[in-house]
Specification:
heterodimer; A: mainly alpha; 2 domains; extended; B: 289 residues; four-stranded antiparallel β-sheet; 13 helices; 23% strand; globular
């Protein structure tokens, strides 16, 4: 593609004459007209394919949600949220302990993982060297680790030496799971803060740590909130890390150093029973879990769009 | 966006009369682009007050530079984008009639792609395709319109680059990524890219606003040269630029309802030396805007 050196030596006036310009314009228009029908066809086909893909992608989601609602809605009642599980064959009962357990376990995990993730992300924003690249790579690899492996890891680290299951060990496993997601989400959110703002703040005499706190984190806040809440939503539904750590319980436990129940564990234990009532409880718990995740996601998105709209 | 332009398309002779009236003032030949009662509104509701531009009738004489002048936010760019139907992809709704020569731009059977092969556009900031080479950027429009023949692409690329006064500085590195060029060169490459499809009309949306004075001067000189064979609509908020390079000037200001409106248009000399509208006088002497 070495233009002028294409062999022929042309007199520039040949190709710049009004006749030549007009001739080329005619050729382009003819080509455009001749191919327009085909281009439109390709365009419309592409559009149809995209819509079809959208529908196909939505089918499993809609089916899952509607099936869960269908099976689970009959199990919902006030008791469901305020009672503990009852023995098999006894009617009534609820999953209060699982809801509270999930809130405690995920809450503790978030309290640890969110600040830690933000700190690591700030480090990644600030540094461009080999170490930062390594950390970024490790975070990417970690976010691909199967959650059951994280569960086994927490089991080996805490449960085996102490001979004791505990809700907080589950929090540890979930924090490990959330950390890489949060780090990368925070980094992406803070990368969207324009370099100009760094310049502006540094030129005013601010220390870099102050810039990070007052300018970068504040500007990126909607993105940070969204990313973190999505990580929380992801953790709420995780089962495997809790199997080895929190174990599950039928009692209302608020001490995180004791074995605790959680909604995914309740779904697993009740859903695998033959008893129809327990299966309904499992479906209803699944429905509540879905609602939790939906609410967290909606809050995250709303916050993001609200904050971006009011930023200007 | 559908109703009135169609009527204007059918009622072709009525449109001519308007052209004739405008013509009487300027004394020049035929018009390359005519706008009749063009309004653009944003937002979904028909009766929303968000009218960006209200009732603009304006004709662009062939092979002249017409400057659209006015403060920010008064609809200059909006008007420019009605000419090549760029509002099709936004929420903007256009009413009134736009014609390029005899082509009714908003007629139901007019394909926007056909309109755009006759109208080139250059934007405020250079917007070259970052993954393409200099050569591939210049011929991008040709390829997108189905032109494939290599010798033709080479000839068109060389011609467009020569027209944009860029050939000598890039002829030995046409394969390099286009974004390696300087800002001024990038903008001229954008002009070359627009010229390569052989447009009759070139829409320039503040093409110098992101350039330094030297690069601006080159682009301005280029605009004057190009206007020998091509009709140019130039949006600017730079009064001096308008006086330096435009044959005609159309002044836009905001009306009482905060919509952009055309206050006055005519030969640049007249608009600046003896404006008919007091608001034009105030604007060109710097007391408003």
């Amino acid at each position: 593609m070495t233009g002028g050196a294409d062999g022929t030596v042309r007199d520039p006036s040949d190709i710049l004459s009004p006749e030549a310009v007009a001739r080329r314009a005619r050729i382009v228009r003819r080509a455009s007209r001749a191919t327009l029908r085909r281009r439109r066809l390709i365009g419309n086909t592409t559009r149809i394919v995209c819509y079809l893909a959208l529908v196909i992608a939505l089918i499993p989601l809609v089916a899952l949600v509607s099936y869960t609602i269908e099976r689970g809605v009959s199990g919902l009642s006030v008791d469901f949220f305020s009672q503990l599980p009852v023995p098999q064959g006894v009617p009534g009962g609820g999953v209060e302990e699982a809801i509270i357990g999930t809130l405690i376990i995920v809450g503790l995990a978030a309290v640890v993982a969110i600040p830690l993730g933000l700190a690591v992300a700030l480090f990644l924003i600030d540094r461009r060297g080999k170490l930062a690249a390594t950390v970024r790579f490790v975070a990417d690899v970690m976010s691909g680790i199967p959650s059951i492996a994280i569960g086994v890891f927490a089991y080996a680290l805490f449960v085996v030496p102490s001979h004791h299951y505990a809700g907080i060990t589950g929090s540890f496993a979930l924090a490990v799971l959330m950390l890489p997601i949060i780090v990368r989400a925070d980094e992406v959110a803070m990368r969207t803060v324009p370099e100009d703002l760094w310049d502006a703040a540094l030129a005013l005499g601010a220390r870099p740590s102050r810039v990070a706190r007052s300018v970068v984190v504040r500007t990126a806040l909607p993105g940070l909130v969204t990313g973190n809440l999505l990580a929380v939503a992801r953790a709420i539904g995780e089962t495997a890390p809790l199997l080895f750590t929190a174990l599950g319980s039928s009692l209302l436990v608020t001490n995180p150093f004791q074995p605790m129940d959680a909604m995914p564990l309740r779904i697993l234990s009740d859903g695998t029973q033959a008893d129809a009532h327990l299966q309904t409880v499992a479906w209803a718990t699944a429905l509540v879990l879905l609602a939790f995740i939906l609410v967290v996601s909606i809050v995250a998105r709303t916050f993001a769009s609200y904050a971006t709209r009011h930023a200007r | 966006m559908l109703g009135s332009p169609r009527r204007a398309g059918v009622d072709g002779d009525g449109g001519r009369d308007v052209e004739g009236d405008a013509d009487a003032g300027s004394g020049s030949g035929e018009f390359a682009v005519t706008l009749e009662h063009v309004s653009v509104r944003y937002g979904k509701v028909e009766n929303a007050k968000q009218v960006a531009v209200r009732d603009v009738s304006l004709a662009f004489p062939k092979n002249q530079v017409t400057a659209l002048l006015g403060p920010s936010g008064c609809g200059k760019t909006t008007i420019l984008r009605t000419i090549n139907r760029l509002h099709d992809h936004t929420t903007g709704r256009v009413s009134g009639a736009v014609k390029i020569g005899e082509l009714d731009v908003y007629a139901r059977d007019t394909q926007p792609e056909i309109v755009r092969t006759r109208v080139g556009m250059v934007f405020q900031r250079p917007n070259l395709f970052p993954t393409l080479s200099i050569f591939d950027n210049v011929v991008a429009g040709l390829r997108m319109n189905g032109v494939r023949k290599r010798p033709f692409l080479r000839e068109a690329a060389e011609a467009a680059l020569r027209q944009a006064a860029l050939w000598d500085s890039v002829k030995d590195r046409l394969g390099l990524p286009a974004v390696r060029l300087s800002g001024g060169q990038q903008q001229r490459l954008c002009i070359a890219r627009a010229l390569a499809i052989g447009p009759e009309v070139l829409l320039l949306d503040e093409p110098c606003s992101a350039l330094d004075p030297q690069a601006s001067a080159r682009v301005e000189r280029l605009i004057v040269e190009l206007s020998a064979h091509i009709t140019i609509a130039l949006v600017t908020h730079n009064l001096f630029q308008a006086t330096r390079i435009s044959h005609r000037t159309a002044v836009f200001l905001l009306d009482e309802q905060n919509s952009g409106t055309l206050v006055e248009d005519g030969p640049t000399v007249d608009v600046f030396s003896s404006p008919k509208d007091p608001r034009t006088l105030a604007y060109v002497t710097g007391t408003i805007g």
